[in-house]
């Protein structure tokens, strides 16, 4: 079998497993789900599951990590000039992703993925904000981890509210509103006002 065909099959299997996990979490909660539940729902052999993942935690976290890596790429391009000019693109990439695929974030923000996912999201958001500060070469008036935790907490709250309301406001507008809310605090914390 060609490696291209095998790669497509591997990607397909991983997607089926992820989709099954998300469906099951929303139906019955994360804690009660077994690998057997996931493989039966995905119509994939248990051996295929273990070829890719050691357990359901790894499946869940690997799915989030894939999303996080894409968003982090946008944050790396965010500059001090963008911050001063009010360009909200790091938040925009997150709102756009959530809008396109809300299931994973419903799981995270509702705590249905267990404390594991919520903790991973907080760490990711905090690290992303700290990386952004580092890239801008700013020595903030408030310790960077506190600024990062503030941004992460605000993002969690706003994303949760947006999801609960059915995401009626477009992602671009949500990013603009979010940035308008946090920008004054960030500028103050970074001693840039």
The CA-CA distance between the termini, in Å, is 61 Å
**How do the helices and strands follow one another from N- to C-terminus?**
HHHHHHHHHH
Rounded mean pLDDT is 83
Q: Sheet with the most strands?
A: none
Strand proportion = under 5%
* Low-confidence parts: none
> Percent of residues in helical segments?
over 70%
The strand count comes to: 0
Shape: elongated
SSE layout and pairings?
Elements (H helix, E strand, L loop, with lengths): L2 H26 L6 H8 L3 H7 L3 H21 L3 H6 L3 H12 L1 H8 L4 H22 L8 H21 L6 H19 L4
Structure notes:
The structure is a single chain. The chain is an all-alpha fold and 193 residues long. It folds into two domains: 1-53, Homeodomain-like (Arc Repressor Mutant, subunit A), CATH 1.10.10.60; 62-189. Helix content is 78%, strand content 0%. The chain has helices at residues 3-28, 35-42, 46-52, 56-76, 80-85, 89-100, 102-109, 114-135, 144-164, 171-189. Helix 6 (89-100) packs antiparallel against helix 10 (171-189), helix 7 (102-109) packs across helix 9 (144-164) and helix 8 crosses helix 9 (144-164). The chain is elongated. 27% of the residues are buried. The model has no long low-confidence stretch (mean pLDDT 83).
Summarize this structure as a short list of keywords or feature phrases.
mainly alpha; Arc Repressor Mutant, subunit A; 2 domains
Task: Describe the structure concisely.
This protein is an all-alpha fold and 193 residues long.
